[in-house]
Amino acid sequence: MVGAQVMGMFLDGPDSQLPVIFGSIPKVELPSQEQVSEIAEVLSSDDPVAPYTGRNINDAYIQKVSMNLGSTKLARSWKFFRNTGWGPVAIAAMLGNFMVECGGTTDLIVDVEVDDKGKPAKGIAMWRSNKTGTGRYEQLDKFAESRNSTWEDLETQLRFVNHEFETQANYYDPKDFNSVTDVGHATVFFQHKYENPEFEGGLTEKELNALPEAEKEERYSEYTIYNERVFVKSHEKRRIDFATEIYKEFTEKEHQNIVNEIIESQA
After folding, report:
1. Could you tell me the residue ranges of all domains in the chain?
2. pTM (2 decimals)?
3. Is the model's pLDDT at 136 over the cut of 90?
4. β-pair partners for 128
5. Which residues contact 155 (CB under 8 A, 6 or more apart)?
6. CATH number for the segment(s) 53-198+233-266
């Protein structure tokens, strides 16, 4: 193991290329940076697909988030999505979007219902109703009822996200989303394919396409979806900033938790 403390000698003297190991000296061994990086690759690249397969944005920013289960709604959400098969990049993208939908607070707002331009919306994703009363707002209620729960319950909402990915896979495409390795790209993917907020400036896509070419060019996102350019949607940068910070905080804490578990197992 890299970093182990051993006793021995080199058969080739000063060249030190032919070691002979007599034995090891017990000590508490922490993963090297190389090993932590390898663990991170395993956690982020080989996860299976999930089996269940406007609000005013203030200047609040993520302060410190905790990986302790139950300590914050963000931490509980991260744990839930990790346990149901999502990779860290996809989870950060989801939570970054939810943070903006919840008004940019330092945690998720679960049990608030708002008026979104004449349409009721609620939950961490601000699921909205429609004219026929068959929107995602109503579908969340039905899903909660099927679980003997209420829509205000955080885990019910998290399970509803997975349920929508499972039942709307042709549109949301969980395999593609879970395979994205760049946080910004994943955030924009989720923003367009799942949240689908307004375009910035309040224009419709038809109005955007009718703009002069130079002005239209300025409104394109730097990211593409399925190799097609997309227009910037509401608070794109803020969503990416939140997602990036969440990814950094939680992946670092995952690595630290691994180190702590090793220390505890060898104590």
Report:
1. 53-198+233-266
2. 0.73
3. yes
4. 121
5. 76, 80, 149
6. 1.10.530.10
